[in-house]
Amino acid sequence: MVTQLLSVVRGPDGYHHSYFFQKHPVAEIPPAIKHVEINDGRKAQTVLYITGLAGLLSLVQFSALEMHVWGARIDRSGRLAFDVDLDPKLLWQHVVTAVVQLRELFAKRDLQCFVKTSGDNRLYVLVPIARRRSWEDVKLFTN
Q: pTM of the predicted model, to two decimals?
């Protein structure tokens, strides 16, 4: 059974009204939307996950307009993620240079990476990995 960690954008009053980002459980969450405590090395937090169709349908009933999967499950990470914040004081070329240097670093280790935008002021450099390593192993590499 797949346990996909996720965050959601919820719009209880519909998509034409206000909506908000949620990744932590609240009291009124349906039982098919599960939660688990994880520790990323900096702090422990309780995050959401679903395990199948019942969870997916519960997200719809919970007014989820968007579902953002983490690319990770409770037991194993499926990717390394490097957050590149865009500072207004930096030229865009500096950000591009940093991302290219990361790509070259991973290429030397026979790893491929991809850039994902967040829609705000961030870029993520994502490196898919086999799900053989525990969260603890992956955190050693990314921290």
A: 0.60
